[in-house]
Predict the 3D structure of the following.
Amino acid sequence: MDDRQTQIREGAGLEESRINEDFLRFVGRWGAPVVVILAVSYAAWSFLKTQQAEADIRRGDAYAEFEAARSVDPPNPDALLAIAADFEGVAAVSHLARIEAADTLMREAIQGVRFGAELDQSGAPFSDEDLIEGETFNTQVTRARDIYERVLSATERDRAQALIAVSAGFGLAAAQESLGDYSGATGAYERVARAAERAELTLHVGIANQRIASMGTELERPALFYDFELPPDRLSPSVQEPALNVLTPRAGSEPEAGPAAPDFPLPPESAPESGPDQGSEPEVTDPPEGDDGQQ
């Protein structure tokens, strides 16, 4: 019995020694590569976490600067375009900033006067340099058109950015119409319809198709004038001088006609006969006496 227990203890010790030797051989063979792999994995994970944190901070800064620039009344197109360039590829900030800049250029061109210009009472700017008309108008609208085109080309095939593409496409079409390029405007609406249909934006598809259908009926547009370009009798009521307070008959009622004037000359009016003065007392006379002396 004692010999058997002694053999068991010796066999267990040999088995344990063999396991330890196998582990040591495994560590000696694979330990260094495993340690290196674990170290590299941890370093990569730490790097990605740091990059993600920096990206989140940059994204927040981009939206903060964009909102600050667009909240100015009116926004500065050049400042918005600078933000778009600084944060190129950061979320959708660059696209949104460019659309806002183009929208501002279009609003200013349609108004016809530089934002912030000093105006007189008739609405005319004191300086002719603040007017946007003729070649200046075409230059500014062309600039807005090119900005819209850049955004639309970058987003029209991306289903996730369909709303941005639709906004840029409608702006592009408006710029083309303002320049008189109705063929280009129709093409822009068609691109809007395709981008909206790709993202299942049925409402925007319908609007674009309606604009295409009505394009031929809007080729002739009335000319618009400023108040200072009109003669005084054509000014808007808010600019005209206040009219005299003259009574006019109510709508639906006609004044009664008086007697017709005679067609012969009237005699000159005679002066009234002079009579006793109003303030004098009448003269009292005695009655004539009769034959018998009685009154």
Observations:
- The chain has a mean pLDDT of 76.
